[in-house]
Amino acid sequence: MKYEKYRAPFAVILAAGIGSRLSPLTDTYPKSLLSVGGSVILERMIRNCLSCGMSQFVLVLGHRADEIKKFVKKTFRGIRVTYVINDRYRETNTGYSLMLAAKAIGTAEFVKFDADVVFDVRILRRLLDTSHANILCIDRNIPLEDEEVKVIVNDQMQVIEVGKSVDPKRALGESIGIEKISAETGALLFAELSKMMERRGNLQNYYEAAYAQLVDKGTQFHALDISGLDWTEIDTAIDFAAANAKFSSPVTTISCGQQKVLDEAVEEAAIQARV
């Protein structure tokens, strides 16, 4: 692993949704403020970003936005956060929310997160250490059905198709909701989303619809295989229980140097075990 590497300056977190499938858990809390393993979901995400040297955040909010703002202000003093409000969160989806972040992101490279994804920090480290400009994190070990965002790649792991309607038999795996987007592609992406959202019938589109359009027009996206590393998307009560079983302890912020020491200790232990 590369421990000293340029880190994408912006983390873009989409947290505007209601989380209705988690009712009654979300009747009084935003989904991103539910606790998993002793840490709030959004706190885990932000601390993982801080552990990887990411210090600038764009949060797209809608449902219970003020509560999320108060939590971030209280928990993370001094970090740089720009809040973008999706006032139409009840009638729109992630594509519209991401489009709204365009001005706050500007011409920067960014990593986009769905706020309901809980993940091992090693996934983010691996993503940031990968040299390709545009990357989708993919898990091959997920049963693929209609709900999953599926990805088809070629022999060079370049994305050929992405979306929920992709043939699961041809797909490498599921896109987990964490992507790295270059500054150049960001401009193309926001233009595509803006054009897409001009039609009212597209307001419920996911951002992956814009990724698919860019792929069709020749923009290169690569898949990063993170199979074997822990992550989960929380949509239902069953997902929430599974997340608490998988992530059973509170999150901590670990610097790149500390992670290097930990990884070297694990490698040394593995070598000694083989001797």
Q: Care to describe what's here?
A:
The protein has 275 residues and is of the alpha/beta class. The chain has one domain (10-138, 175-274): Spore Coat Polysaccharide Biosynthesis Protein SpsA, Chain A. It has helices spanning 41-51, 65-75, 94-100, 102-105, 121-128, 183-196, 208-216, 237-246, 256-274, and strands at residues 10-15, 35-36, 39-40, 56-61, 80-85, 110-114, 117-119, 135-139, 150-153, 159-163, 173-181, 222-225, 231-233. Strands 1, 4, 5, 6, 8, 9, 10, 11 and 12 form a 9-stranded mixed beta sheet that branches. Helix 3 (94-100) packs across helix 6 (183-196) and helix 6 packs across helix 7. The longest helix has 19 residues, at 256-274. It is globular and about 50 Å long.
**Tally of DSSP helical segments:** 9
SSE topology string: EEEHEHEHHEEHEEEEHHEEHH
- How many strand segments? 13
Termini separation: 24 Å
The CATH class turns out to be: Alpha Beta
The residue ranges in which pLDDT falls below 50 over 5 or more consecutive positions are none
Tell me the structural class. alpha/beta
CATH topology type: Spore Coat Polysaccharide Biosynthesis Protein SpsA, Chain A
Please name the fourth-level CATH homologous superfamily: Spore Coat Polysaccharide Biosynthesis Protein SpsA, Chain A
Strand proportion, as a percent range, falls in 15-25%
Mean pLDDT across the residues is 90
CATH architecture: Alpha-Beta Complex
Q: What's the Cα radius of gyration? A: 18 Å
Overall morphology = globular
State the domain count. 1
Measured as a percent range, the helix fraction is 25-40%
Q: Biggest sheet: strands, sense, closure?
A: 9 strands, mixed
